[in-house]
Amino acid sequence: MRRSLLAVVFVAVAGVAGALAYAAWANEREFDRLMAAGDAAVTAERHFQAIEAFSGAVTRKPDSMVAHLKRGSVYLGQGELDAALRDLRRATEIDPSAPRPLELVGDVNIALRRAERAVESYEACVALDDRNARVLYKLGLARYRAGRAAAAIEPLQQAIALDPALGEAHYMLGLVRRDQNQWPAARASLETSVRLSPGSQTASREALAEVYGLEGDHTRSINQLEALAALEPTRPDRLVAVGLAQARAGRTDAAVTTLSRAVERFPDAPQGYAALGKVWLASAQTRGDRVALNKALEALQQAANRSDATSETLAELGRAWLLAGDGQAAERALRQAVSRLPVPPDAYLQLANVTARDGRIQDARDALVKYATLVGDAQPMATVSTRIAEFSIRLGEPALAVRWFDRAIDESGPSAALLVRLAEAAWKAGDLARAHQVVDEGLSAEPNHRALLQLKRRLPPL
């Protein structure tokens, strides 16, 4: 009896073990089938079927790094970035020693414009495999986009040492050198990138044309832009870029010819008319040429009449009307310009000039303040700050004038004329102590300055 019972138990255990073994074998077999089906679907570019197959594989083996990796790769290729990130992060958790998931996590973060996170992923990948030129290039790219251009140099140089034919690394290194104002080094890297991929590296040619222009080599710059126009003959902006480069090089006649050709070939493209008008306007301003001014107005109006006219085009039209002496038309164009983003700061400056001529001081000051806000510290502001301060005095706001006179002095230095205006503004604002202080500082530098001495006598005692 006892032996029979043991035999029954043995058979039962063996049966269960056999069933489990068979189930595991069947599960593994189905997993392999689903993975193969997913690979075949990827090869055939049937992405939905690939995701279905890999999802089935993940269900069969939730701890499979490869299944998560492959499904995440398909999601990435389809632009489903959140889904891709979930899969790829899970793959890195399952196997932290695998470099490929880390690389793809970096790729997703680059696509999501999370450069710092991409840097972390690529650095972790490089720590596992520092001989992968592609990943080193991506690390340099991520650091550059994160605003760490200097730190991008080392991985880019390492990538080039491992794979000298990696044109993207030469291109990125050229951008870094350009941003560091190392133009000869930038030119060398970008020329190499163009040479390695002569037909496809449009970005390299654009950057190389820019560097040539920065070096003053306008002929080579124009040659690169002409090559781009030949590579992409259906893009009007390529031909426009050639014409504008010719204008910057002082080749006005060639620029007009090129841009006229652009207008003829692409009559529905407003940028051609806008660029042609800009060149004619520059010619009118430098030569005092009324014929050129009329042609500028004609071209700019053609561009400005489009519903998609840019703020810059409308601002150029405003300048042209100003030069033609039509203040009302200039103001209409400039107000349209400042109502569309992005606004060129100079549009506010021109609007201030127009409104100031008509005695609308409030409007003029408001325009100058907006100009100052947009420009910040990027350009000299002493003259504009002084105008804002003087308009504020006329508007009966001396305390505001003090602030703007201070800004003008901070930038241009304490000239006696500005110190007089600042002291007068402080006096009108009721700050007699500040007025005395400013006058005393001015007299310590110029003891015999007549206006300062006169103001000193007029100021009430403290």
CATH topology grouping of the domain at 233-379: Serine Threonine Protein Phosphatase 5, Tetratricopeptide repeat
- What gap, in angstroms, lies between the N and C termini? 123 Å
CATH homologous superfamily title of the domain at 233-379:
Tetratricopeptide repeat domain
* Helix residue percentage: over 70%
Radius of gyration based on Cα positions: 34 Å
Structural class: mainly alpha
Strand runs, count: 0
CATH architecture of the domain at 233-379: Alpha Horseshoe
Q: Helix tally?
A: 25
> For this structure, what is the CATH class of the domain at 233-379?
Mainly Alpha
Shape call: extended
Task: Please describe what this structure looks like.
The protein is mainly alpha-helical. Among the domains are: 164-232, Serine Threonine Protein Phosphatase 5, Tetratricopeptide repeat (Alpha Horseshoe); 233-379, Serine Threonine Protein Phosphatase 5, Tetratricopeptide repeat, CATH 1.25.40.10; 402-462, no CATH class. It contains 25 helices and no strands. Helix 1 runs antiparallel to helix 2 (47-60), helix 9 runs parallel beside helix 11 and helix 23 (416-428) packs antiparallel against helix 24. The longest helix has 42 residues, at 2-43. The protein is extended. Residues 6-17 have low confidence and may be disordered.
Could you give a short description of this structure?
The protein is mainly α and 462 residues long. The protein has helices at 2-43, 47-60, 65-77, 81-94, 99-111, 115-128, 133-145, 149-162, 167-179, 183-196, 202-214, 218-231, 236-248, 252-265, 270-287, 290-304, 311-324, 327-338, 345-357, 361-375, 382-394, 398-412, 416-428, 432-445, 450-458. Among the domains are: 164-232, Serine Threonine Protein Phosphatase 5, Tetratricopeptide repeat (Alpha Horseshoe); 233-379, Tetratricopeptide repeat domain (Serine Threonine Protein Phosphatase 5, Tetratricopeptide repeat, Alpha Horseshoe), CATH 1.25.40.10; 402-462, no CATH class.
